């Protein structure tokens, strides 16, 4: 899995560097998650709060469209009774944005998640990484706003898991979650 992560990071940064003729901004982001696990059986999970933080590249394709690849550490999972299911991912969304002239943006795109930690916590902590697949694929939808004079912005997204994350053949489980966060673009144009 570490080889997959290194390969993905290398390809992401090579793609950004080859687009140097375009208007590219690098930024950071941090925010709050509210995730749950959706299943196709009668299992019921409550939402779990967590954080996300990472880096982003904002690439202007023209005056109205931009591509925004990101590399984000995301604390996800769910609650089941008194047990916290903690699933931590390195997520790599590639978001296509339509930019309005007033700083608002609508956005959507695919997201690849790499599971880095899975634990169940009640009175003790149990490693459950073998119960979950290491790859999660999904789609992200949302809106954002950047305030050009300050280069700060706010981002609101819904992430819809498309692939089964459970190693069990009896249950089909997917990640679902909302994210709200702030970001900063260095030398935003």
- Tell me the radius of gyration: 17 Å
Can you summarize the main beta sheet? 8 strands, antiparallel, barrel
CATH topology: Porin
User: CATH first level: which class?
Assistant: Mainly Beta
Q: Can you name the CATH architecture?
A: Beta Barrel
Helix content: under 10%
Mean pLDDT across all amino acids: 90
Ends apart, CA distance between termini = 36 Å
* Helix and strand run: HEEEEEEEEE
Provide a count of the helices.
1
> How many individual domains?
1
Apparent shape: elongated
Strand arrangement within the widest β-sheet reads 1-2-3-4-5-7-8-9
Number of strands: 9
Q: Which strand-content bin applies to the residues?
A: over 45%
Low-confidence stretches: none
Q: SS-based structural class?
A: mainly beta
Model description:
With 189 residues, the chain is mostly beta strands. The protein has one domain (2-185): Porin (Beta Barrel). The protein contains one helix and nine strands; from the N terminus they run H-E-E-E-E-E-E-E-E-E. The chain has one helix at 2-18; strands at 23-39, 48-60, 65-80, 83-99, 104-121, 125-127, 135-147, 152-161, 173-185. The protein has an eight-stranded antiparallel barrel. Strand 4 and strand 5 (104-121) form a beta hairpin. It is elongated, with a radius of gyration of 17 Å.
Which terms summarize this structure?
mainly beta; Porin; 1 helix; eight-stranded antiparallel barrel; 9% helix; 189 residues
Give the helix/strand layout.
Elements lengths: L1 H17 L4 E17 L8 E13 L4 E16 L2 E17 L4 E18 L3 E3 L7 E13 L4 E10 L11 E13 L4
Antiparallel strand pairs: 1-2, 1-9, 2-3, 3-4, 4-5, 5-6, 5-7, 7-8, 8-9
């Amino acid at each position: 899995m570490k080889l997959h992560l290194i390969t993905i990071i290398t390809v992401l940064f090579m793609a950004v560097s080859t687009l140097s003729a375009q208007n590219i901004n690098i930024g950071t982001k941090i925010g709050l998650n509210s995730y749950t696990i959706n299943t196709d059986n009668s299992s019921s999970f409550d939402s779990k709060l967590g954080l996300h933080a990472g880096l982003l590249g904002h690439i202007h394709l023209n005056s109205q469209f931009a591509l925004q690849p990101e590399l984000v550490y995301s604390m996800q999972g769910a609650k089941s009774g008194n047990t916290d299911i903690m699933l931590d991912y390195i997520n790599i969304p590639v978001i296509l944005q339509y930019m309005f002239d007033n700083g608002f943006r609508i956005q959507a795109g695919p997201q690849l998640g790499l599971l880095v930690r899975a634990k169940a916590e009640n009175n003790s902590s149990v490693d459950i990484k073998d119960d979950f697949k290491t790859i999660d694929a999904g789609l992200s939808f949302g809106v954002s706003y950047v305030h050009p004079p300050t280069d700060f912005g706010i981002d609101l997204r819904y992430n819809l898991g498309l692939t089964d994350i459970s190693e069990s053949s009896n249950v089909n489980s997917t990640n679902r979650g909302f994210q709200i966060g702030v970001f900063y673009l260095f030398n935003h144009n």
